[in-house]
Design a protein that fits this description.
Layout: E1 2-9, H1 18-31, E2 48-50, E3 59-68, H2 75-85, E4 90-98, H3 105-108, E5 111-118, H4 125-134, E6 139-141, E7 150-152, E8 157-164, E9 169-176, H5 185-194, E10 202-214, E11 217-219, H6 221-228
Parallel strand pairs: 3-10
Antiparallel strand pairs: 1-3, 1-4, 2-3, 5-9, 5-10, 6-7, 8-9, 10-11
């Protein structure tokens, strides 16, 4: 039995590395007596496959992992047992059974939504968004493996949403992950600085979720499985 799990990482654990997160999940599986499957060979490990790495310094509302079970288990029982043993800053939101042939998360996730919370008292966020969307090129220096190389983010920015209240504004940037260009959150911060949104205005940054973009629609990795199963 194979399941796909959606979980939340709260802001208290924003500096946890991907390896540390894997260790936390694995310890919870053991403590919760989850019937996880093990790989074969001299050094067997839990058949756990994490989604795209949550950058150190960010927290995430909807993160994902795939898990293979050695014995059937109800989804409700799995979620309940895991949430009892996980740290308070990590919570399983939901899970779903998936087919053995379902592609791995890393192979299908191609879009990400980052949320930048800013102090917008004296800043016209709507005008800034229009300016960014009207640009033909948005070039920054790459912060990925090929550091310092010019990277055009414009072709990978799909949409920008604004959520306003009296004290702050949330800027949600829906961007590509992988192809046509892999966009990092720190590159988006550089782009904001270059287009007039000073980094001192940024209060918080987090990842709303990873998505599978099909045409103009964005599906969560769980929705994609449910829609096309």
């Amino acid at each position: 039995m194979r399941i796909r799990v959606e979980y939340e990482v709260k802001s208290e654990l924003r500096f946890l590395s991907n390896l540390d997160m894997m260790n936390v999940i694995q310890r919870a599986l053991r403590r919760g007596n989850i019937p996880y499957a093990l790989s074969e060979g001299f050094n067997p490990h839990i058949r756990l496959s994490m989604g795209t790495v949550l950058p150190v310094g960010l927290w995430g509302q909807r993160e994902y992992f795939d898990l293979e079970l050695a014995a059937p288990m109800s989804i409700e029982d799995f979620v309940s047992k895991m949430n009892v043993v996980l740290p308070p800053a990590i919570k399983i939101n939901q899970a779903s059974k998936i087919e053995q042939s379902t592609p791995a998360l890393m192979k299908v996730i191609n879009a990400t939504a980052y949320v930048f919370v800013i102090n917008s008292d004296n800043f016209d966020v709507s005008a800034w968004r229009d300016q960014v969307l009207n640009q033909d090129i948005l070039t920054v220096k790459s912060r990925g493996k090929k550091k310092g190389i010019d990277k055009d983010l414009k072709k990978g920015i799909y949409k920008i949403e604004l959520i306003n209240n009296e004290l702050e504004t949330k800027i949600i940037l829906w961007v590509s992950s992988g192809e046509p260009v892999n966009i990092r959150y720190d590159e988006l911060l550089d782009m904001m600085q270059q287009t007039g949104l000073d980094s001192s205005l940024v209060i918080d940054v987090y990842r709303q979720g990873n998505y599978i973009k099909v045409g103009e629609r964005f599906y969560s990795p769980l929705e994609k499985v449910k829609v096309f199963e």
